Amino acid sequence: xxxxxxxxxxxxxxxxxxxxxxxxxxxxxxxxxxxxxxxxxxxxxxxxxxxxxxxxxxxxxxxxxxxxxxxxxxxxxxxxxxxxxxxxxxxxxxxxxxxxxxxxxxxxxxxxxxxxxxxxxxxxxxxxxxxxxxxxxxxxxxxxxxxxxxxxxxxxxxxxxxxxxxxxxxxxxxxxxxxxxxxxxxxxxxxxxxxxxxxxxxxxxxxxxxxxxxxxxxxxxxx
Length: 223
Fold this sequence. Notes:
A five-stranded parallel β-sheet has the order 2-1-3-6-7, sandwiched between helices. Strands 8-9-10-11 form a four-stranded antiparallel β-sheet, with helices on one face. It has a three-stranded antiparallel β-sheet with strand order 12-14-13. It has about 220 residues and is an alpha/beta fold. The protein folds into two domains: about 1-115, Response regulator (Rossmann fold); about 125-220, Winged helix-like DNA-binding domain superfamily/Winged helix DNA-binding domain (Arc Repressor Mutant, subunit A, Orthogonal Bundle), CATH 1.10.10. Helix 6 packs across helix 7 (about 170-180) and helix 6 (about 150-165) packs across helix 8. The protein has helices spanning about 10-20, 35-40, 60-70, 85-90, 105-115, 150-165, 170-180, 190-205; strands at about 1-5, 25-30, 45-50, 55, 55-60, 75-80, 95-100, 125-130, 130-135, 140-145, 145, 170, 210-215, 215-220. The chain is about 40% helix and about 25% strand.
């Protein structure tokens, strides 16, 4: 799962990115509305977390601008402006949820799960491939109902491939599913994740194989 965090408190943004990362969420962060608009043009996000008081304007102005592009990405407003009339204002402008600061990460995760269950989110449904059942919202994988323990990045790679099973997935698409845009990606990092993941899937008799499409990306096939 990949989200966009629009937040001008750098320490809070860094802490949130780390906390969300433990739940298998890749977070792109920006402090500016103008950059947020450009990021949503370049990337597909499962959800957006939006502050209101930003250096270049009122965060709520971002919502109608995004909706005008035809994107219905779920938006949760995270803000200290949490009076009833302020919450009503945010929801009336198109926010899917509104959470006042300070908040618990556990509550934010529960609200994320709630908005992502609403169609047409990519994370709404469990993913099935071979004998695998992947639940992206709860970071769980089973093989014939037996849990398969995977490191976070390998689980993200697996989810991205399984969503597009029997189709070639570009390296850039897989990297976007695993790393945020600020992270420096080593040239062989993705290949290393996939090499380890292949072995785990074979050992677990998962019923899928991952094939290298040279110079393009990877393909998951069901056996």
